[in-house]
Amino acid sequence: MYSHTKIVHVFCGAAILLVAFIMMAFLSSADAALMSCRADPIVFLSDGSKVTITAEIATSASNVQKVQYALHAPSGTQVVRVIYTAGGLGKRETFTLYDDSLPGTYVSDTVVTTRNGKVPVKVTTSLGGLNLGVATGYSRDHLIVSLLGSLLTAP
Predict the structure, then answer these.
(1) DSSP labels for 51-102?
(2) How far apart are CA 96 and CA 32, in angstroms?
(3) Is 70 exposed, middle or buried (0-12, 13-18, 19+ CB in 10 A)?
(4) Whole-angstrom Cα distance, residue 95 to residue 45?
(5) How far is CA 61 from the centre of its chain?
(6) Model pLDDT, residue 154
(7) Strand, helix or coil at 103?
(8) Rounded-to-integer distance, Cα 21 and Cα 126, Å
(9) CA 71 to the chain's CA centroid
């Protein structure tokens, strides 16, 4: 038979192993949660609008093959400039403007392509910093956000 001391040692050893496995699982999921990247171009348009499209991608920047942004803006609108603010993705980001929407209507269509796996993506599009919309999905999905801007024109 086993003595009381040996039983206690076995249970303590098992408890320590259990705690170690739980901590390893927690740290692995925490590391996965921290492995993400972000891209967020700011687009200035000829109608005076400023549109920011933010893509939060649940993978490392090295796994992102490309991020394609398309913006459908009111007819006649042109791009004044695009500022890419997030680091790490650089030339893997592209932006295209389509001036095919009704007055005051802006629609962003973002597609993230990854090298490995299907990863969660959240896209937030804001118009002038106040009016915003969100779309969620996965890499290779078309994440579409529609916004209505002011229909007022300057005198």
Answers:
(1) EEEEEEESS-GGGEEEEEEEEEEETT--EEEEEE-SSS-GGGEEEEEEEEEP
(2) 32
(3) middle
(4) 13
(5) 11
(6) 38
(7) coil
(8) 43
(9) 16
